[in-house]
Amino acid sequence: TLVITVALCFNASADDGKIVIDNVVYELTNEEVYGFNGGLGIDFGEHYVATDFLYDKQEKTISEKIIITDEIDGIKVKGIKDYAFYTDPVKKVSLPNTIEYIGSSAFRDCSQIGELILPSEIKYIGANAFFGLEKIESVVIPERITQIFPYTFAMCTDLKSVVIKGNVTAIYEGAFNSCKNLESINFPESLKFIQEGAFGNVGLKKVEIPPNVDICEHAFSNCKSLKKLVFKQGGNSKYNEMLEEAFFKCYNIEAIYFKALPFDYAYIIPESVKDIYFAGSPSLWNKHTTKEQR
C-alpha cells in the first residue's frame, strides 16, 4: 500500500494541524457521523476527512480535477466533510474506495462535474450532497447505501440513469427532484417508502413499484412524460390508494398494471388512464374499485 506523506508530496502542514495534499485540505478526526434527522452515529474510528479545496477564487478559473488521496501516514481517508467542496469550480473528482461517507452538501452546486463514480465501500451520503451537478448523466449507488437522503441528487438536470445496487429502504423528500432527463431507475425489493417530491418533475416514462412500498403524496408529481405504472403487489400504505395524489399532475399516464391488490382499499385512478391491467379475477377487481372507476 502506498503511504503518502506530506514530505513526499511536497505539501504543507498547516499550523492548526490540517494537511494539504494536491490543494485538498484534510484533518484528523475520530468523531462519529450522525445520520439524517438525528439518527444513530456511525463510528469510523480514527481517520482523515477532506474538508476543503484550495484555489485562487480571484482568478475564477475552473480546476480540472479534485483528487482525494486514500491515506496519509498510514491512516485512511474515510470521509468528506459537510460543504467541503460546495460550489467549487471543478470538472472531475476522483474518490478512492476508502471513502465511507460523504457529508451534506459536500459537492453541492459543483455544476461543472461531468462524471460521478461513487466508492464501492461508501455507507452514507448526506442530504444535498450532489445537488445541482447539472452535467452528470448516470449514477450507480453502491451496495452499502441503505437510504437516499433529501435532495441528494436534486437538480441533476442531465441525469438519465440511476442504478441502485443495494438494499435501499427509503428514498427521502426531493431526492431526485427536477432531474428532468431521468429516464430509468430500478427500485429494489427492499424499498419501503418514497417521500414527498422524491421524483417530482422528472423524465421517467415508466415506474415499477415493488411490493409493500409506502408512496407519499406528490412523490411523483408533475412527471409529464410518465405513461405507464406497474405495481408488483398492493402495499399496506394509506397512500397507495391515492394514486391521484402520489402522481399529482402526471397528466399523461395511460396504463396501470396491477399484479395484485391489497385488501380493504379502493383505488382512485387518475383520469388520464385509458387501460388497466389486473392479474386477478374480475370479481376481485370489482371488490376494490368503485363503479365509476370500472
Distance between the termini: 66 Å
What is the alpha-carbon Rg in Å? 22 Å
By DSSP (H or I, 4+ residues per run), the number of helices equals 2
* Rounded mean pLDDT score: 84
| Oligomerization status of the protein chains | single chain
Strand content: 25-35%
Largest sheet: 7 strands, mixed
Unreliable residue stretches: 1-15, 235-240
Count of distinct strands: 22
Q: State the share of residues found in helices, binned by percent.
A: under 10%
What class would the helix/strand composition place it in?
Answer: mainly beta
Element-by-element helix/strand order: EEEEEEEEEEEEEEEEEEEEHEEH
Can you tell me the overall shape? Answer: elongated
Task: Describe what you observe in this structure.
With 294 residues, this protein is mainly beta. It has helices at 243-246, 282-287; strands at residues 19-21, 24-29, 33-34, 41-42, 47-53, 63-67, 71-72, 75-80, 90-94, 101-102, 124-125, 138-141, 147-148, 161-164, 170-171, 184-185, 193-194, 206-209, 214-215, 228-231, 255-258, 275-278. Strands 1, 2, 5, 7, 8, 10 and 11 form a 7-stranded mixed sheet that branches. The longest helix has 6 residues, at 282-287. The protein starts with 18 loop residues before the first strand and ends in a 7-residue tail after the last helix.
